[in-house]
């Protein structure tokens, strides 16, 4: 078994990020950028595209200068836990409010870990839900229902 001299997965991923960033830059080239104090419609697409391109250059460079290490096989339990938690939040947020949706989301996502402890997940869910309510409802005054009533 020979070891590849470059990490082809990183090189290809970096190239993909660079292509996506270049496409976004080309698609939004006619928008006015403005300044940081007076942002135009092209300011954020430019900033995000440049950041994405920087990540692409990083991954490409890293892939060229390190040997291939392999990719771990996909683990089904964490993948299903995260997908299910996002779907539960999407289904519950509008009907039952932010508190119930966030609690359910964090608790379900916790089942993805190997050393899942239900009591710790509930405590973390309560703290995270409280922070979400304070940030989105109180701090930013977003019209998000907190409770189902």
From TrEMBL:
Residues 13-145 form the DUF1468 domain. Coiled coil: none annotated. InterPro entries: DUF1468. The keyword Transmembrane applies. The chain crosses the membrane at residues 12-28, 40-59, 79-109, 121-140. This is Tripartite tricarboxylate transporter TctB family protein. Keywords: Membrane, Transmembrane, Transmembrane helix. It comes from Flaviflagellibacter deserti.
């Amino acid at each position: 078994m020979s070891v590849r001299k470059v990490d082809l997965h990183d090189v290809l991923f970096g190239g993909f990020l660079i292509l996506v960033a270049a496409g976004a830059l080309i698609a939004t080239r006619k928008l006015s950028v403005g300044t940081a104090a007076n942002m135009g419609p092209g300011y954020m697409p430019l900033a995000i595209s440049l950041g994405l391109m920087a990540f692409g250059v990083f991954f490409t460079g890293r892939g060229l200068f390190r040997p291939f290490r392999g990719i771990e096989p996909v683990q089904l339990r964490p993948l299903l836990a995260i997908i299910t938690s996002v779907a539960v939040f999407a289904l519950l947020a509008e009907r039952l409010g932010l508190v119930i949706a966030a609690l359910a989301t964090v608790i379900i996502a916790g089942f993805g870990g190997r050393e899942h402890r239900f009591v710790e997940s509930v405590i973390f869910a309560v703290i995270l839900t409280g922070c979400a309510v304070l940030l989105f409802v109180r701090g930013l005054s977003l019209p998000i229902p907190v409770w189902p009533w």
